[in-house]
Specification:
Distance between the termini: 46 Å
GO molecular function, one term: oxidoreductase activity
Bound molecules: NADP nicotinamide-adenine-dinucleotide phosphate
Number of strands: 13
Number of helices: 12
Largest sheet: 7 strands, parallel
CATH architecture of the largest domain: 3-Layer(aba) Sandwich
Strand content: 15-25%
Protein name: NmrA-like domain-containing protein
CATH topology of the largest domain: Rossmann fold
Pfam family, one: NmrA
Keywords: NADP, Oxidoreductase
Organism: Penicillium chermesinum
Structural class: alpha/beta
Order of helices and strands: EHEEHEHEHHEEHEEEHEEHEHHHH
Helix content: 25-40%
């Protein structure tokens, strides 16, 4: 593995200039691609299915790929220094493995695989939410293929989770209803989509390697084989509700509020998933995140200051979330048709 810049071949440029991204037109990938382009330090190439109708942010180069023809993926990845994968969780299970194998053949050294969720070091939470073992297997495969990985630990996306229906943060904006889990006071760490985009761009804009053993500056290599930890808000449902009421100009009287225990929601969701009904997946995932005795709060590990990430306004982010409601509903309809 590369260690110091001063031991690299003549002509080595100590920066990540060429970034490939899967999902550049997607929910998160569009934010990452946009923030990368804003730095002016990278070319951003989207690996996009050849029949995709997803719109890509302007300035992104397109490399059409066919997941049934590895040569198209290898060709798209040749010369790329960093592969970011933000792929729909509904994509066929072996899609990421196909990308890893092609990246290895193309000589890509670094991969950020699908994750963008909880703390990868919290094995229990990972097992309970059913996401941990798959994430670990992805990271292991990247290592086995001789590449290095980093994983984004950002918690639930604040704006997306607010907009994404009752199963997530409990809000249904069409019905103006809210399900409060337990007493609504359990705090979890969350990040906005734009904060995740900024964090990825900050890391990839660092020097790739320390110049030599005395160089203590922050580098991309400092984030390899481990998570990048960030946050926007450490927040409970009651705080979110207060923000929603401020932003929408509503009061308690406008909302139908009910209560449910996270334990019951978790068990219901798990039962559905185990019977093959993936409608239960988000329900069990978010319920587990809000368990009062073991919530998904890893804000103590957040590297916001190290990366120079901004402090965001809660109410502005709530507005962004509410504006996403319709878009996410249309997306679900598109995917179903
Ligand atoms: N922390 C959270 O709250 C949270 C919430 C949701 C998701 N996530 C995670 O974030 C990651 C990205 O999710 P996302 O919601 O941003 O993804 P997304 O927008 O649903 O999809 C991203 C891209 O995946 C590609 N894609 C879609 N269907 C595919 C298929 N059948 N085969 C191959 N590629 C396909 C599309 O790219 P092209 O059309 O260009 O090929 C699409 O733009 C996942 O790891 C997910 O688990 C986290």
């Amino acid at each position: 593995m590369l260690k110091y810049a001063n031991t690299q071949a003549v002509g080595f440029k100590n920066r990540v200039e060429r970034v490939a991204i899967v999902g550049a037109g997607g929910t998160l990938g569009s934010h990452i691609a946009t923030e990368l382009l804003k730095t002016g330090k990278h070319t951003v190439t989207a690996l996009s299915r050849k029949d995709s109708s997803n719109k890509l942010p302007s300035g992104v180069l397109v490399a059409p790929v066919d997941y049934n023809d590895e040569s198209t993926i290898v060709a798209a990845l040749e010369g790329q220094q960093f592969l970011i994968i933000t792929m729909a969780p509904t994509a066929p299970r072996d899609s990421q493995s196909k990308l890893f194998q092609a990246a290895s053949k193309a000589g890509v050294p670094y991969v950020m695989p699908n994750w963008y969720g909880g703390d990868i070091e919290d094995v229990k939470q990972g097992e309970d939410t059913l996401l941990g073992p798959g994430g670990k297997a992805n990271r292991d495969e990247i290592e086995t293929l001789g590449m290095q990985w980093t994983a984004m630990c950002c918690g639930f996306w604040y704006d997306y989770s607010l907009a994404g229906g009752e199963q997530r943060f409990g809000f249904d904006f069409d019905k103006r209803s809210l399900t409060i889990y337990d007493d609504g006071n359990t705090k979890i760490s969350t990040s906005t989509l734009s904060q995740v985009g900024r964090a990825v761009a900050k890391v990839l804009s660092l020097k790739e390697l320390p110049e030599d053993e005395n160089d203590r500056s922050l580098t991309v290599s400092a984030f390899l084989q481990r998570g990048i930890y960030i946050k926007s808000f450490v927040i409970c449902q009651n705080d979110i509700f207060e923000s929603v009421k401020r932003v929408t100009g509503t009061t308690d009287a406008d909302w139908a509020v009910s209560h449910e225990s996270t334990q019951e929601r978790y068990e219901d969701g798990q039962t559905l998933v185990k019977s093959g009904n993936m409608a239960g997946f988000s329900k069990q995932l978010y319920a587990r995140g809000f368990f009062p005795d073991d919530p998904s709060d890893f804000s103590a590990k957040a590297q916001n200051e190290l990366l120079g990430l901004p402090v965001e306004s809660l109410d502005d982010s709530t507005k962004v979330g509410i504006a996403l409601v319709k878009e996410l509903q249309l997306r679900v309809e598109r995917m179903a048709s």
